[in-house]
Amino acid sequence: KPAMTKCYIEGSQETGRDLTLKCVSQEGSPLLSYNWRKITGTEELPATSLLNKDTGELSLKNVSEEYSGTYSCVAANRIGTDDCFVVLNVTPRKEDVPPPKSRTSTARSYIGSNRSSLGSMSPSNMEGYAKTPYNQVPSEDFERSPGQNPNFPPSK
Hints:
Elements: E1 3-11, E2 19-27, E3 33-38, E4 50-52, E5 57-60, E6 69-76, E7 81-88, H1 100-120, H2 123-131, H3 139-143
Antiparallel strand pairs: 1-2, 2-5, 3-6, 4-5, 6-7
């Protein structure tokens, strides 16, 4: 009977992309047929899916987040069956949502540049500076320079 059946996903798991679920039995006599099914949610394969029972490939076109779930592949020959499963997790395309990494680094350098300009400003400049709503500047920066605090306008 089939043995060591492996399931894997080829392609990008992002909405709007095409991907292929692949199923391969590494052992077992020939005359294998493969059958994919979804075992979570609606338990039905997506309408656009295309199953090739001979190669064990399940092609999914223009995937959407509803396609996410656990898929199971059963390899069968005359003697018996073997199965495996794979979890598909379709995510929105990265272009729409910038990865968080770049966001934090820009925030960091932004605060850093304010920090350096704070130190070099003279007290008279500081007054106008404090009036502008710079929410991004951490308050601890002001506390570090007690000498300049008297120059801040009242916080009303």
